[in-house]
Amino acid sequence: MSSEIVTLRPEPLTAKAFAAFGQVIEADHEKSYLINEGTTRRFHDLAQADVTDEGGEAILSIFRGTPRPLPIAISMLERHPLGSQAFVPMQPAPWLIVVSDAENPTPASCRAFLATGSQGVQYAKNVWHHPLLVLEPTQDFLIVDRQSAKGKAGDNLEERWFDGKGAILQIP
């Protein structure tokens, strides 16, 4: 494994660019219609939670993130083999995403995305991603992910730590 530092430059988050990793969650006028006597626009079926393996069930949580020290060092990724995981920002502030589609991720296999405060993502099962990366002093996210079936532990978290120096995420 190389001990050189890889520099990651975030690209804009789009559904096409992120498709190999999951779904982008954002208000899409094409997937919307009026409800409640025309007073509310419903943005419908923006992502599908995939959490029922081994009897898991969908839960909602709020994660409150704080920024990591600059420069942001990417030294590990995690994945969830039994369920998808969605992150939807609750404030209109940009945030960062780092993912890899390699079975054995390395810093060089990572891609970084810059999400707007109106974009969320749903990581598909088994997608390697970095834990939450926020840019504001405090950012809240609505999370949809998997809880193990009652009475079962479930093993839905794997971590991969990089050898060497990892990657540095360059903030735009």
TrEMBL record:
Keywords: Lyase, Purine metabolism. The keyword Metal-binding does not apply. Homodimer. GO terms for molecular function: lyase activity. It catalyses: (S)-ureidoglycolate = urea + glyoxylate. The keyword Lyase applies. This is Ureidoglycolate lyase. It comes from Kiloniella antarctica. InterPro entries: RmlC_Cupin_sf, UAH_cupin, Ureidogly_lyase, Ureidoglycolate_lyase_dom_sf. Gene3D superfamilies: Ureidoglycolate hydrolase.
